[in-house]
Amino acid sequence: MKHWRIDDVCWDQFDPSRLDPSLVSLVKAAAMVERNGPDYGTYLNRVFHDDPDFGAAADNWSVEEVQHGDALGRWAMPADPGWNYEEAFARYKTGYHLPLLDADTSVRGSRTGELIARCIVESGTSSYYSALADATDEPVLKQVCKLIAADEYRHFKLFYDHMKRYLRRENIGFLHRLRIALGRVGESEDDELAYAFYCSNSAPEAPYQHDRCIAGYMSRAMGTYRYHHLERGIAMILKAVGVPPRGRLASLIVSIAWRFMQRRQRRFAAQVAA
Ligand SMILES: [Fe+2]
Ligand SMILES: [Fe+2]
Fold first, then answer.
1. Distance in Å, CA 169 to ligand 2 centroid
2. Separation of 274 CA from ligand 1 center, angstroms?
3. Which residues, other chains included, contact 218 with Cβ-Cβ below 8 Å and sequence gap of 6+?
4. pLDDT tens, position by position, 243-260
5. Do 65 and 57 touch, CB atoms closer than 8 A?
6. CA–CA distance from 216 to each of 94, 175, 194, 212 (Å)?
7. Separation CA 132–CA 127 (nearest Å)
């Protein structure tokens, strides 16, 4: 069951005088990836084929992800008149295919690993939409991002609870779980987001260049984060791998990650400027 519907958003409060073009380009790209949720839902159903409870939860999850895409796409069309959400998504769908579409078992090597990877994604999206909500002065985008961030947090909880159940059964070690989590964090710079940024912000005749597109996306996306957004995302990641999410170790990890992220953001921004 959805926790909100697109018609709950106060669309009539849209204020074009408060738009930030940099955020508009991020929202358009995010709409592509969100709308693509059902492909991942299909894969999850194959991986968890004998777990009907989880299968039903994954189906519901993918319906909510599609709604995220639809809400962001609906917001972005008047924000960038001339841009068409459905056309951009059709372009994305034609050119990008999840690398795991044919897999019958988890590409993470176990169901626990799969669920840890899902927790990492939801940690990222939950903190990211909170950052976007705080970064924008446009009231409708702020409302949409807050609604999505709350969903993403619930998604984290969903995958986390199932992960704990599978961890008791599969009992994979801490270092293995940590490796899966770090690997999934690194994948955020793969084609999924870069190609979404390309399809939603470049003319079809322009060539796709991964490095240029991921720099365009990441320089802006990382720029929306404040310390507390990263702190929240990392607390969730630590919880997923079994490290206490609060305390001295967690604070140290956040401060290192913050410096790393700022440096990376500057590098991406320099690439864009060049
Ligand atoms: Fe989402
Ligand atoms: Fe989600």
1. 25
2. 32
3. 189, 193, 264, 265, 268
4. 999 999 999 999 999 999
5. no
6. 21, 33, 8, 6
7. 9
Contact assessment for residue 125 and residue 224, using Cβ atoms and an 8 Å cutoff: no
CA of 62 to the centre of ligand 1 (A): 9
The closest alpha carbon to 209, from 227, 232, 187, 191, belongs to 191
Query: Could you tell me which of 175, 128, 168 has the C-alpha nearest to residue 148?
Result: 128
What one-letter code names the amino acid at 273?
Answer: A
Place of tokens 């995010």: 30
DSSP designation for 84? -
For the chain, what percent of residues have pLDDT higher than 90? Answer: 95
Per the CB < 8 A criterion, the answer to whether 271 and 211 are in contact is yes
Ligand 1 center–CA 37 separation, angstroms: 8
User: Could you give the CA distance from residue 143 to residue 133 in angstroms, rounded to a whole number?
Assistant: 7
The residue with tokens 């909500």 is 133
pLDDT for res 101: 65
